[in-house]
């Protein structure tokens, strides 16, 4: 549900030290209409990031991704390693495939809730659908307490929710984690839903060069709720691996 506006607190807090660029992926505001007819795909989005870094002539880059964007950034680092100097994943989305277990998928209760949210949005009850979904990935009441700017951004991108669920994120595995050779910072919100803690814990154990951090007093939107703490984690990590 987020576009380049999501990272405004990071642009404001880190731009004096770094060249900071935030992106809107295909299908997202402000050019969502231009992508009609194009497939909605995490693979395409990961490859778009590589094309974007090439176009800027700015690689290898310090890449930061959150939620679904965390999964896309992870796949970007796997598919295009020469473009990534460091990788930061904040509450990365997607299931965890533990060795020897059956194929990892999201629980049926989660899928049912998401289907209900999409039904509400597609029937014109956009605010109700967004409230249901956003509260489920953060905590109850988050939508009602969120800023007007966040609600506007999510509303502008509400049309992406259905396509997202038709394009399930791939599972994190021990094998694919071994392919990510760059330094990785894993961040979770201390109050985030358990699904994100599980992903961070698994990746922390599997990635060859990973370190973990948690943002106290924050849930899934930790970079918005505690921007100073989040930015400090980013600055400390990135500055230790070249600018």
Structural overview:
By secondary structure, the chain is of the alpha/beta class. It has one domain (4-106, 171-239): Alpha/Beta hydrolase fold, catalytic domain (Rossmann fold). The chain has 12 helices and 4 strands. A 4-stranded parallel sheet has the order 1-2-3-4, sandwiched between helices. Helix 3 (68-79) links the parallel strand 1 (61-66) and strand 2. The longest helix is centred in the N-terminal third of the chain and has 15 residues, at 42-56. It is globular, with a radius of gyration of 17 Å.
Summarize the structure.
With 243 residues, this protein is α/β, with parallel strands linked by helices. 47% of the residues lie in helices and 10% in strands. It is globular, with a radius of gyration of 17 Å.
CATH fold topology? Rossmann fold
Number of domains: 1
- The geometry reads as globular
Mean of residue pLDDT? 95
Tell me the strand order in the biggest sheet. Answer: 1-2-3-4
Strand content: 5-15%
CATH class: Alpha Beta
Tally of alpha and pi helices? 12
């Amino acid at each position: 549900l987020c576009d380049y506006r999501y990272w405004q607190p990071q642009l404001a807090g880190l731009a004096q030290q770094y060249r900071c660029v935030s992106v809107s992926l295909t299908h997202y505001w402000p050019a969502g209409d231009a992508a009609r007819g194009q497939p909605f795909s995490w693979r395409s989005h990961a490859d778009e990031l590589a094309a974007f870094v090439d176009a800027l002539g700015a690689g290898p880059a310090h890449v930061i991704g959150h939620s679904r964007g965390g999964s896309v950034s992870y796949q970007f680092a796997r598919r295009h390693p020469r473009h990534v100097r460091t990788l930061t994943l904040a509450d990365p989305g997607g299931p965890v495939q533990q060795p020897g277990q059956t194929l990892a998928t999201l629980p049926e209760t989660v899928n049912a809730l998401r289907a209900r949210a999409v039904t509400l949005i597609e029937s014109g009850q956009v605010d109700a659908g967004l409230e249901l979904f956003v509260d489920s990935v953060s905590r109850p009441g988050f939508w009602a307490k969120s800023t007007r700017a966040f609600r506007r951004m999510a509303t502008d991108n509400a049309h992406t929710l259905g396509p997202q669920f038709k394009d399930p994120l791939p599972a994190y595995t021990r094998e694919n984690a071994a392919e990510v050779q760059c330094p990785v910072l894993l961040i979770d919100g201390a109050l985030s839903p358990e699904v994100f803690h599980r992903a961070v814990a698994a990746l922390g154990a599997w990635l060859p060069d990973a370190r973990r951090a948690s943002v106290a007093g924050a849930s899934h939107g930790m970079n918005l709720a505690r921007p100073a703490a989040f930015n400090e984690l980013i600055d400390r990590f990135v500055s230790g691996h070249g600018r």
